[in-house]
Structure formats: structure tokens, C-alpha cells
Write a structure and sequence with these properties.
It is found in: Mitochondrion inner membrane. One of its GO terms (molecular function) is serine-type endopeptidase activity. Its EC number is 3.4.21.-. Keywords: Hydrolase, Membrane, Mitochondrion, Mitochondrion inner membrane. There is one protein chain. By secondary structure, this protein is an alpha+beta fold. The chain has a single domain, classed as Umud Fragment, subunit A (Ribbon), CATH 2.10.109. The protein has three helices and ten strands; from the N terminus they run H-E-E-H-E-E-E-E-E-H-E-E-E. Strands 1, 2, 3, 4, 7, 8, 9 and 10 form an eight-stranded antiparallel β-sheet that branches. It has a two-stranded antiparallel sheet with strand order 5-6. It is elongated. The protein starts with a helix and ends in a 6-residue tail after the last strand.
């Protein structure tokens, strides 16, 4: 025969276990989704004007294509910064492996240009607003391994909600 207090504790422990399992399932779902399928990225600053607003954008990026195909010219990608791994800038791919890229090193200060060949396993990324962008002109070509995902959609600001596909460069 069970006492009323032990019945209460049995019921409470069962409910706690159910709740704990639900929380664990939600956490696992979110972990798999954000680490393997897609994620939300926040972009702010002037480096991608006119494509992105300098005051801030919420973007939907996917991680699947980086596993099965190489980035293409014109793709907007989220990268892990080669200079500061805590930052994830958003830039446009302007050159893929084997491309010969000529660029002005610092368009604000001079018109000195440089030409490089993008090495195998790398991409050359650049902000759309080259006068105010820290990109491959500063830190060199980016290895594929630092690409976190490809941007698909702008989610916020809502009036500009929609796809952000590649544009010719």
C-alpha cells in the first residue's frame, strides 16, 4: 500500500521526467537545425551597402550547400573572420579558386592596385561598398573551412523581406 505522499512524489517525478525529456528534445532539434541546416545571421554596418541596410538586417543563412558544392561568384556568405574568430562578417564572393583578381588595395587613400590568383580551396570575398569594407583585400583569400553558410533570405527589416540571390559581379 502506498501513502498519499509517495503517490504525489511518483507523479511529480514522472511529470518532471516528461518535462525534462521535452526540453532535451527541443534542445537537440535546435542544435541540429542551427549547426547543420541553417541559422539566423545579423548584419550591420556599411560594408554591404546597397544590398544590406547599414542599420541592421536579420538574414537566414543555410549550411547545407557548403558541404556539397563550392561557393559561386556572387554568393553572399557568412564567414568566420580570419583576423578575429569571434566575428562573423557577411561578404560577397567575388572570386573562386583559380580566378585572377585585380583590386584597389585601399580605394579611400590611393588607387594602388594588386593582382592575385585565388588559391585552391579559397574564395576572395569583398563587401559591396568597397570604400568601407574590411575583406579579402585586407586579410587575403578565405579558406572554404571558414565559410559558415550562404545567405538566402533577408528576414528583417520586414519591408525588404525576400531572397538575396547572387548578383553578377
Amino acid at each position: 500500500m502506498t501513502s498519499p505522499s509517495s503517490s504525489f512524489w511518483n507523479t511529480a517525478s514522472r511529470e518532471a521526467m516528461k518535462s525534462g525529456m521535452f526540453v532535451a528534445k527541443v534542445y537537440c532539434f535546435l542544435h541540429v537545425t542551427t549547426n547543420y541546416l541553417g541559422f539566423m545571421a545579423y548584419a550591420y554596418g556599411p560594408s554591404m551597402i546597397p544590398t544590406l541596410h547599414p542599420s541592421g538586417n536579420m538574414l537566414l543563412a543555410e549550411r547545407i550547400s557548403k558541404r556539397y558544392q563550392k561557393p559561386s561568384r556572387g554568393d553572399i556568405v557568412v564567414i568566420r573572420s580570419p583576423e578575429n574568430p569571434n566575428k562573423t562578417p557577411i561578404k560577397r564572393v567575388v572570386g573562386v579558386e583559380g580566378d585572377c583578381i585585380s583590386f584597389v588595395i585601399d580605394p579611400v587613400k590611393s588607387d594602388e592596385s594588386q593582382t592575385i590568383v585565388v588559391p585552391k580551396g579559397h574564395v576572395f570575398v569583398q563587401g559591396d561598398y568597397t570604400h568601407n569594407s574590411r575583406d579579402s583585400r585586407n586579410f587575403g583569400p578565405v579558406p572554404y573551412g571558414l565559410i559558415q553558410g550562404r545567405v538566402l533570405w533577408r528576414v528583417w527589416p520586414f519591408q525588404d523581406f525576400g531572397p538575396l540571390g547572387p548578383t553578377p559581379t
